[in-house]
Each structure stands twice: as C-alpha cells, then as structure tokens.
Amino acid sequence: TSSLASTVASTEQDELSQRLSRLRDQ
Amino acid sequence: MALPAQLRAIQHHLRTAQEHEDRDPVVAYYCRLYAMQSGMKLDSKTPECRKFLIKLMDQLESMKKEMSDHDSITQEVVGNAHIENYALKMFIYADNEDRGGRFHKNMIKSFYTSSLLLDVLSVFGEMSEENIQHRKYARWKATYIHNCLKSGETPL
Fold first, then answer.
1. Cβ of A13 and B37 within 8 Å?
2. Closest-CA residue in chain B for A8?
3. At the N or C end, where does chain B have fewer CB atoms within 10 A?
4. In sequence order, which ranges of chain B are alpha helices (DSSP H)?
5. Phi and psi of B27, rounded to 5°?
6. Tens of pLDDT, residues B36-72
C-alpha cells in the first residue's frame, strides 16, 4: 500500500511539474 | 484553503499576491508563480501539500488565461521588468521616507514588500548582485525600524 501511495504521489508530482512547464511555455 | 505548515515559508508571498489582486494582477500572478515553484521544492509529496499546490496551479492557469492579452504575462522577459520596476519603486519610496526621517508602518511594509518582490525575481533566473543587496538591505531595514518603533526608539 505504501508503495502504491508513493507511486501515486510521484505521478501527481510529475503532473504538477508538467503543468508548471506548460504554464511557462511561451 | 489553509496553508499547510510545511509551506509556511511562502505565506508572505501568497499574501502579497492577494493584496495585489486588483491593484496589479501581474504582480499577483508572479508572486503566486514564485510561491508555486518554492512550494514544490519545499514539499510536493504529502497529500495536504499536493492538494494545496494543485489548487494554486489551477489558480495560476486561470489567471494566465484571463490575462492572455498582457505582454507581462505572455512574455516573461516583460514580466521580469515589470516586477523589478515595481519592487524598486517600492524600495525607493521607503528609502526616501527613511532618509527624510519619516518612520511609519507604511514605509516598513514597503521595505518588506519590496524584499518579497525581489525574491520573486528569482523565477526569471539568477538574480543580479545589486538586487540581492537591495533585498538584504530592505529586509534588514524593515525589521530594524519595526523593532525601533515597537520599543519607542528613534531609528538612526
């Protein structure tokens, strides 16, 4: 369960990073 | 939404964003962008921080959409100049009050806000040595004058 939680957390983290990059794309 | 304790370091930048919502939305946008970047470095793993940062990202995306006709938003180089001018204008106002011996809450706040806005410049890349010095001076002055007024001393 903790491994699943950590996978979910890291996927959401990646999504946030991608959204931040897209936001700053000009 | 309540700010998780792990993200306390960005509370002043978020407050500055809120205070500039109507006065200068470009300032509000870049303060939130700075808060977002810093928040992700502080903690983007715990559920409460992720939830908070996702909300902040939603807000940033909707602000960018609403201000899609502002060069300061669509071109970060223009945004950089806007934030730098605004921060230095605030710094100069507070510095003039200081040099004129006029010590009051508004000038303390201007010194402090200018230091927060100088922090925001780091989203555009490495800060100039001059801005780093201005930030240090503004933060020190804000604390020093605040403490003097609190203890009834006249600042030097």
1. no
2. B45
3. C
4. 11-19, 25-42, 47-66, 71-74, 76-99, 105-120, 129-151
5. -60, -45
6. 999 999 999 999 999 999 999 999 999 999 999 999 9
